[in-house]
Amino acid sequence: MNNGRGQFLVERCDWAKDNSKLLIYHDKEWGVKETNNRKLFEKLSLEIMQAGLKWTLILDKRNEIIKAFDDFDIEKISEYSINDINRLMSNKNIIRNQKKIEAIIYNARICRSIDLKKFIWEPFNYSRLDHLLHTGDYKYIDSFISKYVLQFKRNGFKRIGNKTLYSFYQVIGVINDHELKCFYHNR
Ligand SMILES: [Zn+2]
């Protein structure tokens, strides 16, 4: 699209236009295929942290959260003790929700014994799904996501609900939910 001044205007998903932080996140990270186990664990944990809160709050605190959780090193977190829970609960710069923190530690112990990348991507044959969304279509699709939620639950993961998992799958690119009009849809 040309705005008449010779500048090329990039069309984006509607939600990304709300503020500059969301816009950068949308352009650089959202929906980019992620296969690194540590990054997958980090992104899953951030989705757990987000539940019930605004994503922009997580973006604001993200660097502090990553620092507080040892760069989401699965081995390190799986060995966290009550002292670490107390340390995290007294850190004002992160999300201080004990149930969420405990779930992340618990999930790290599971991730130590499975290959998270394989666990996530194998059911999709390592390729992306495309829901061919139009503006306003945003909704998590229970009938689609519930069987994958069950898979996580059967393996013992905590605090993985339909919304959390669907959002995670959007972020890591399992599902391409960029709107069809969005410049990044065919990235
Ligand atoms: Zn988009």
TrEMBL record:
Residues crossing the lipid bilayer are: none
Q: Which domain of life is it from?
A: Bacteria
Q: A Pfam family matched by this chain, by name?
A: Adenine_glyco
Which PANTHER family does the record cross-reference, listed alphabetically?
A: DNA-3-METHYLADENINE GLYCOSYLASE 1, DNA-3-METHYLADENINE GLYCOSYLASE I
Q: What is this protein called?
A: DNA-3-methyladenine glycosylase I
- Species the sequence originates in: Apilactobacillus micheneri
